Amino acid sequence: MKFFTALVATLAATASAFAPTKSASFGSRAVAVKAAEGELYIDQDRRNLMNLILVGSAAVTVGGLAVPYILFFVPPSAGGGAGGSPAKNALGDDLFSKAYLASHGAGDHSLAQGLKGDATYLIVKEDGTLENYGLNAVCTHLGCVVPWSAANNKFMCPCHGSQYAPDGHVVRGPAPLPLALAHCDVAEDDKIIFSPWTEDDFRTGGKGWWN
Fold this sequence. Notes:
single chain; alpha+beta; four-stranded antiparallel beta sheet; 4 helices; 18% strand
């Protein structure tokens, strides 16, 4: 009897050893899955905030790079403003008619700072007075400053060979348009004043291209 009891106990112990149990690794995997599911959850408000920050940063960066790039391709201004402005010399001093004419003879074409600071030619007529218009010195081809050639009695661009007559109309390409005009007057205090030319271009008979 004792032998039978011992045999039954042995068989029971052996059977319990092979019975299925929840392994520790299975439990660990379950915990890992739950943890992973928790990590995958992101608050929607936080996600929207992060997207706004990302988009805003990208916009600022792109804008900072794009603006100078776009401005590089904007043609140089051809004068023109809401009102007149005093002609100035290279040092930024106002130019006065009497003093200017005393040092610049008939036929002189010299540069001054004109509207918007553009280089603009003051022209002294044969009678020793100022011409009633100034010529913007910016070439209408690619924006070079066109020098006056007294020997040839015309403006000659050194960049691509464009040439302009003394009044600024084109006599040789590739420049497509005449030099822009600005009114040139003498104020009561003797200052030389440039102001926008809004009338028709007397050289072409049509509206000035700079308007």
